[in-house]
From TrEMBL:
CDD domains: ALDH_KGSADH-YcbD
UniProt keywords, alphabetically: Metal-binding, NADP, Oxidation, Oxidoreductase, Potassium
Species annotation: Rhizobium mongolense subsp. loessense
Aldehyde dehydrogenase domain location: 16-472
Gene Ontology molecular function terms on file: metal ion binding; oxidoreductase activity, acting on the aldehyde or oxo group of donors, NAD or NADP as acceptor
UniProt entry tagged with the keyword Metal-binding: yes
Protein name, as recorded: Aldehyde dehydrogenase (NAD+)
Length: 477
């Protein structure tokens, strides 16, 4: 079987490889992907550093053309790349194709942004002096991405980094190297100069740690666990390095008495269980007021009965497998914790057998939960949600905000008053009204508050805040 190698200084390299296993069918090896060493990582950083002077001063048309080519090829291959994504991560094929399309749109957007680079010319308070304010590339950027969005998250970090003239050392999650390799291959063939984009697949303890230890990375943009995010932050202080961290959530979906029940159920089911609940924006706390609580629980239970858990590529599958055995154990451990804490298991919670061996778990709904239970405080990152009964809107808002996280927050209501108040007072970076807490556009800012995020926002024009540094220049006329 072919080994998909790392890309360092424009050359494909690497003999040591690990198997990429399909979570829908653990007998299938998706491919063999290189596992980089500390030396590989240092070489990649050196290559990016050497390539930075020329690329940072490259023409905007060159950047535009390369990003546009990449976006066009991703879109043209959306079915192929979507199938690869579904095979290596377990996301259903329609979801995987949708994510691939989003990656293409991100590259298209930043291809346009490359032509819209601008600054300001302002007068000085002193006579006969002009002031120019411009944005310049930050430098060598370390990119570390998670396994749950294996093509979209790399796209929304790589595209702006290149758009604004930075060079890159990219480490994808070990579980999902396939989509990342494909993106790097596409960009490499689109005409990127050698060393501008370097791919080092491998273990976080080796590749990631070497990146953290390097004084030559001007910035690191990271999406992943809270624990690793804190390590990124601590290590970056020593090197005076700019950081951007997206680390998770325990997102609430509030359902008020006046909500349209069908809208509320659809939004909650999508938020909590689609993509197997493996989204940092997933809503695992369903906060429901007394007047609609029993009807909501009954309707949610009926909805969950209709969701088919099966092979990600199979037609009619609503929920694919959990990504791997370790995550499956985490999910089942939390289900047992919820039972011991006194929550009622209203639906699911059982492992499922299918035609192929995989990590299949029923969507799991707890009721009679409180906001102080571990299943309500800690991010599970699986198809597990808890219903928390509250008296009224005021209590619902208080419970929604009572969390160490603050990524996304949702409300189902027909009240303009409550919707408006919630948008203003929800302590989250993103607020959804009568919509799932997961699902955001590619051209607007993404990010959270409190323990969910640190640093400037991702996506859209706000990406410039991280990937550039501001220069102010004075000229005597």
């Amino acid at each position: 079987m072919t080994i998909y190698q790392n890309l360092i200084a424009g050359e494909w390299t690497g003999a040591d490889a690990v198997e990429n296993i399909n979570p829908s069918d653990t007998k299938e090896v998706v491919g063999l992907y290189a596992s980089g060493s500390a030396a590989d990582t240092r070489n990649a950083i050196a290559a990016a550093k050497a390539a930075f002077p020329a690329w940072s001063r490259s023409g905007i048309w060159e950047r535009h053309v390369i990003l546009k080519k990449a976006g066009d090829e991703i879109m043209a291959r959306k079915d192929e790349l979507g199938a690869l994504l579904a095979r290596e991560e377990g996301k259903t094929l329609p979801e995987a194709i949708g994510e691939t399309i989003r990656a293409s749109q991100i590259f298209e957007f930043f291809a346009g942004e490359a032509l819209r680079l601008a600054g300001e010319v302002v007068p000085s308070v002193r006579p006969n002096i002009g002031v120019e304010i411009t944005r310049e590339p930050l430098g060598v950027i370390g990119i570390i991405t998670p396994w749950n969005f294996p093509i979209a998250i790399p796209a929304w970090k790589i595209a702006p980094a290149l758009c604004y003239g930075n060079t890159i050392v990219f480490k994808p999650a070990e579980l999902v190297p396939g989509c990342s390799w494909a993106i790097v291959d596409i960009l490499n063939r689109a005409g990127l100069p050698k060393g501008v984009l370097n791919l080092v697949m491998g273990k976080g303890s080796i590749v990631g740690q070497t990146m953290l230890d390097s004084p030559d990375l001007a910035g690191i943009t990271f999406t992943g666990s809270v624990g690793t995010g804190k390590r990124v932050a601590v290590s970056s202080i020593e090197h005076n390095r700019k950081i951007q961290l997206e680390m998770g959530g325990k997102n609430p979906m509030v359902v008020l008495d006046d909500a349209d029940l069908s809208v509320a159920v659809e939004a909650a089911a999508n938020s909590a269980f689609f993509s197997t609940g493996q989204r940092c924006t997933a809503s695992s706390r369903l906060i429901v007021t007394e007047g609609i609580h029993d009807r909501f629980v009954a309707a949610m239970t009926e909805k969950l009965k209709t969701l088919n858990v099966d092979h990600a590529l199979k037609t009619g599958t609503h929920i694919g497998p959990v990504v791997d055995e370790r995550q499956l154990k985490t999910d089942t451990d939390y289900i047992e914790i919820g039972k011991k804490e006194g929550a009622k298991l209203a639906f699911g919670g059982e492992l499922i057998s299918r035609d192929t061996p995989g990590f299949y778990l029923q969507p799991t709904l707890f009721t009679e939960a409180t906001n102080q239970m571990r299943i309500s405080r800690e991010e599970i990152f699986g198809p597990v949600a808890s219903v928390i009964r509250v008296k009224d809107y005021d209590e619902a808002l208080a419970v929604a905000n009572d969390t160490p996280f603050g990524l996304s927050s949702g409300i189902a209501t027909t009240s303009l008053k409550h919707a408006t108040h919630f948008k203003r007072n929800a302590e989250a970076g993103m607020v959804m009204v009568n919509l799932p807490t997961a699902g955001v556009d590619f051209h607007v800012p993404f990010g959270g508050r409190k323990g969910s995020s640190y640093g400037s926002r991702e996506q859209g024009k706000y990406a410039a805040e991280f990937f550039t540094t501001v220069k102010t220049a004075y000229t005597l006329a």
